[in-house]
UniProtKB/TrEMBL annotation:
PANTHER family named among the record's database cross-references: HELIX-TURN-HELIX TRANSCRIPTIONAL REGULATOR, ICLR FAMILY, TRANSCRIPTIONAL REGULATORY PROTEIN
Molecular-function annotations in GO: DNA binding; DNA-binding transcription factor activity
GO biological process entries: negative regulation of DNA-templated transcription
Family matches, as SMART domains: HTH_ICLR
Organism: Prauserella marina
Pfam short name (any one): HTH_IclR
Keywords: DNA-binding, Transcription, Transcription regulation
This protein's name: DNA-binding transcriptional regulator, IclR family
Length: 275
C-alpha cells in the first residue's frame, strides 16, 4: 500500500472521509504540475471512477479545481482560505524561514523544513543555495513515509523504541523504495542517526542525491519537524558531514527552543546530538 492509500474501517461516513483525505493528500503532492485522475487513482489505490466522483464533488465545494484544457486537477481555492485560517494555530513556517535561509546561504546546498504528519513527512519550505547543481527529490508539498529521505529517518529515529518497532512491523517500504529500506537496514540507520544526532541519506531514493537532516522537538520532547540539506554526493563526502551536521543541529536546537517559547511552554529537554 502506498503512502496515500486509505484503509478505513467503521462507519460509512468515516470510510468516505478517509477516501477524501487520501485524494487530497495525494493531490497536494502533485499540485505544482497538477494531476490526472488516473495519477490520483494510482496514488491512492482507489478505483478510477471512485476517484473521479470524489474529485468532482470536491470541485463543487471549491476544494479541488480542474484545468479544462489539460484535464489536470489542482487543490481548490476553498482550501487556501481554510488553510489561512488554520495557519494561525498550526503554521510554524514563518519561524523556520530564517533557519532555512541561513543553511542555504552558508552551505550553498538546498535547505528544507518539513513537518511530521501521521507516518509521513511533508516538505513545507525550500530554499536553494548558490551551488549550481541541485537535487530535486524534495520540493514543497512532497510527502515521504517515515524512514525514507533524511527527514523521515531522523523523525523516526528519535521516537520511542516501541513506536519504531510497531511502525517497521507494519510498514512495507521495500516494495516501492527497494531493499535498502528493509526493516533491518532502517534500524541500522536509526542507530547511526541516534549516535550522530543527525540523519544521512546516502542516495537511497535517487542515486547520487544525498541528504542530511536534524530533528526539531516539540515542548514534550517529541520529534515534530526537521531541517534538511540536500545535494550531490561529492558535496556530502564523509569529511564534510560533521560540518554540515553541526550546522543542522545548531539551527534545529535554536528552533526547538524558539517554538517552545512562542507557545509559552518550557523548552523541550535536550535530545542526543542536540547541543
Amino acid at each position: 500500500m502506498n503512502a496515500y492509500a486509505c484503509a478505513v474501517t467503521g462507519s460509512p461516513h468515516a470510510h468516505l472521509v478517509g477516501r477524501v483525505g487520501a485524494v487530497l493528500r495525494a493531490l497536494s503532492a502533485r499540485n505544482e504540475a497538477g494531476a490526472l485522475t488516473s495519477d490520483l487513482a494510482r496514488d491512492t489505490g482507489l478505483p478510477r471512477p471512485t476517484t473521479h466522483r470524489l474529485l468532482s464533488s470536491l470541485a463543487e465545494e471549491g476544494f479541488a479545481d480542474r484545468d479544462r484544457r489539460t484535464g489536470r486537477w489542482f487543490l481548490g481555492p476553498e482550501l487556501y482560505l481554510l488553510g489561512r485560517t488554520a495557519g494561525t494555530r498550526y503554521d510554524v513556517t514563518h519561524h523556520a524561514r530564517a533557519s532555512v535561509h541561513r543553511l542555504a546561504t552558508t552551505t550553498g546546498e538546498s535547505a528544507f523544513f518539513s513537518a511530521l504528519r501521521g507516518e509521513e513527512t511533508v516538505c513545507l519550505l525550500r530554499e536553494d543555495g548558490d551551488f549550481p547543481i541541485r537535487s530535486f527529490v524534495l520540493y514543497e508539498g512532497a510527502r515521504f513515509p517515515l524512514g525514507v529521505v533524511s527527514a523521515g529517518l531522523v523523525l523516526l529515529a528519535f521516537q520511542e523504541d516501541a513506536a519504531i518497532d510497531a511502525y517497521l512491523d507494519r510498514a512495507d517500504l521495500t516494495s516501492r523504495w527497494g531493499k535498502p529500506h528493509s526493516a533491518g537496514e532502517i534500524r541500522a540507520r536509526v542507530a547511526r542517526t541516534r549516535n550522530d544526532g543527525y540523519a544521512v541519506n546516502p542516495g537511497l531514493v535517487v542515486e547520487g542525491s544525498w541528504g542530511m537532516a536534524a530533528a526539531i522537538f516539540d515542548a514534550d520532547g517529541k520529534p515534530a519537524w526537521a531541517l534538511t540539506l540536500t545535494g550531490i554526493e561529492t558535496r556530502f563526502k564523509p569529511a564534510r558531514q560533521p560540518e554540515l551536521g553541526a550546522l543542522l543541529l545548531h539551527e534545529a536546537h535554536a528552533l526547538t527552543r524558539h517554538l517552545s517559547a512562542t507557545k509559552g511552554e518550557r523548552p523541550a529537554r535536550p535530545r542526543p546530538g542536540i547541543d
